[in-house]
Amino acid sequence: MNVVCIGSGYVGSVTGTAFAVLGHKTTVLDIDEKKVGLMNSGKSPIYEPGLDHLISTYIGKTLFATTDYSCIHDADVVFVGVGTPSKPDGTADLKFIKLAAEGIGRHLNPNQYTVIVNKSTVPVGTADLVSSIIEETSGLKPNVHFAVVSNPEFLREGYALEDVFFPDRIVIGADHERAGLVMKNLYHNLVNRIGYAEKSQDFIFPHQIPVTQPVYFETDVKSAEMIKYASNAFLAVKISYINEMARLCEVLGANVTSVATGMGLDSRIGNKFLQVSSGWSGSCFPKDTAELLATSRKYGCELTVVEAAVESNVQMHNFVVDKIKRRLKSLNGKTVGILGLTFKPNTDDARKTQASVIINDLINVGARVKVHDPQGMEMFQALNSNLDVQYCEDAHQVAANSDALVLLTHWDEYNVLRWNEVFSSMKQPYILDTRNFLNQAELQALGFAYEGVGITTSENTGVSEVVAV
Ligand code: UGA
């Protein structure tokens, strides 16, 4: 098929590349000349493991990139994968979606049937809005010349290629039968893994690949739009829940890692998304929970569970700062080293990360803050120019003369530091590992005061006696 993906960000660039790999002639369309230029020179416009390789292999063959909307004219399917940032009131800002819809409307071919696919996370009802904008701009009839469907994206940054080529499920919301059939054809090779064996040398996945085939789930447009929000909010609730359990485990002297493992053995619960952290963050969960809450309030249907998860997440950021304060007594004039600025490893995405909140709180109570991240420093600095922090070349520079070393993002490279050098270079050899990721035994053997979250360590053994009620 002839596919166009509007947007070359975290969703559009990966989706476009995937369809090109699977044999569809795919054009990534973006108004940003720099990103388009990068793709045309065989480079990825974002940091995503494996993506550079695929773009350099397929560009000019089945993959194309352009700033010119006229490519819409020949498209069978047009994906919309543009940004939907939050407005100050929490609702999604649809200005980029509307611009894309107008662009599509201006170039739609009256002599063929085109399916427009909302891939961006958009509020329920957005497909109708896109449809009416296209109808108005083009003068063409919905469900005659074109149809708008919803196909929410569930990929995780850092694992995007695995998630796109080997998804758990593909959700298609289509209210027009013909559009549903076009989508089924488009996804045929992906669902049935056709051509995968021949292309396997192209797939470079840094993680384990699942063996099960994806479920192809068809529903109506609004339900598909809702599935995306309900899924992200559920995952946010799940993480907030385990983080709350971690706080209680710590007081009681239980070990949240064992608790999460024991819970996850129940297939109804599952073992994923039960990893403690300093709170969830990033460009999706905060934005999507905010939009869901704003919508629920608008319609008088309060989502108290989601609301509590958001509140609990703020408490988790505070909990980390309090832990450092407790350990260092006063933070005034102390130096805190932060490892990890991105919201999770294997991405350069530093939008709305827990690091910005935690660092801001540390600075407010007088701490000097040194930071490092393997991929996210440039974006973090650009987005947080108000934060007076020292950007360091590596983790060793962060540790030197620090009173505390706080791991916020569990990048693999932080597990293999020269820990004996770190130990002797720190003013106080104290480590707070908010992901329970580092080798506790090794660090304690070297003499570090090591604290995790929700686990007992020599620094934290819980209450001396748990009182039976
Ligand atoms: C999330 C969803 O997982 C994707 O399915 C969805 O497609 C995407 O949002 C989106 O809406 O575009 P992503 O934001 O890339 O993906 O990151 P996640 O891996 O979900 O992590 C989100 C946050 O939760 C991170 O801060 C991460 O560190 C934290 N997290 C995750 C935990 O604290 N514990 C966990 O067990 C898992």
Determine the structural class based on helices, strands and strand pairing: alpha/beta
The beta-strand count equals 14
Here the CATH topology of the largest domain equals: Rossmann fold
Query: Which word captures the global form?
Result: elongated
Alpha plus pi helix count: 17
Average pLDDT figure: 94
Helicity range of the residues?
40-55%
The CATH architecture of the largest domain: 3-Layer(aba) Sandwich
Bound molecules: uridine-5'-diphosphate-glucuronic acid
Poorly predicted runs of 5 or more residues: none
Summarize the structure.
42% of the residues lie in helices and 13% in strands. The protein has 469 residues and is an alpha/beta fold.
Plain-language structure description:
This protein has 17 helices and 14 strands. The chain has 469 residues and is of the alpha/beta class. The protein has 2 domains: 2-219, 3-Layer(aba) Sandwich (Rossmann fold), CATH 3.40.50.720; 242-451, 3-Layer(aba) Sandwich (Rossmann fold), CATH 3.40.50. The protein has a 6-stranded parallel sheet with strand order 3-2-1-4-5-6, sandwiched between helices. Strands 11-10-9-12-13-14 form a 6-stranded parallel sheet, sandwiched between helices. The radius of gyration is 24 Å and the shape is elongated. The protein starts with a strand and ends in an 18-residue tail after the last strand. The model has no long low-confidence stretch (mean pLDDT 94). It binds uridine-5'-diphosphate-glucuronic acid.
